[in-house]
Amino acid sequence: MAASLNASVSSLQSSLLLLDSSISTLESGVSDFPRLCKVLQTTRHFELLPEPTLREAQQSLLDEITPSIGHLLSLASNHVEKLSRREQALRAKAELQEGRMYSSESRQTSSRSQNAHGDRQKANAAKAAEFRRLVQKKERLKYAVERLELQSKQRERQLRKSMAAQ
């Protein structure tokens, strides 16, 4: 009886070892199952639409964009016309200025007798310019003197503070 019991125990132990190895084999095979499910799961990246639906969407976009494009084109053409008119006006003004310069040059050559009067005006203008220059120099010097006075007062205050601190 003990021999048959020993045989049963050893048979049970070998069955347990076989079951353990089967469990570990199954475990290693199934441990990657969630990742495999995720990998094998299909995802639709693109939807196929029928051609009439696409044509309707294209026509709707075209209907929406066409008025805006027309408006922008009219604005651009108006601006180009405006710039063209401005260019023409500037050309006419330049031609007018050239004509004026030419006529003033011809007047200068014909009016040599007025040079004495012009020389006096130039001398007066030179004196006025010299006077303005001297006035500006006086103002600059006055400002420099005021700045130096303020600096000397500030140094006197600092000297008094340092004397009082000792």
Automatic annotation (TrEMBL):
Q: Which UniProt keywords apply?
A: Centromere, Chromosome, Coiled coil, Cytoplasm, Cytoskeleton, Kinetochore, Nucleus
- Provide the family line: Belongs to the DASH complex SPC19 family.
In this record, what's one Pfam family? DASH_Spc19
The coiled-coil regions, if any, are 131-158
GO biological process, alphabetically ordered: attachment of spindle microtubules to kinetochore
* Organism this protein belongs to: Aspergillus bombycis
Query: GO CC annotation: what is one?
Result: DASH complex
Which stretches are tagged as biased composition: Low complexity?
103-114
Q: Is Cytoplasm there in the keyword field?
A: yes
Kindly indicate whether the keyword Manganese belongs to this entry: no
Subcellular location(s) of the protein: Chromosome, Centromere, Kinetochore; Cytoplasm, Cytoskeleton, Spindle; Nucleus
Residues of the region (Disordered) are 96-131
Protein name per Swiss-Prot or TrEMBL: DASH complex subunit SPC19
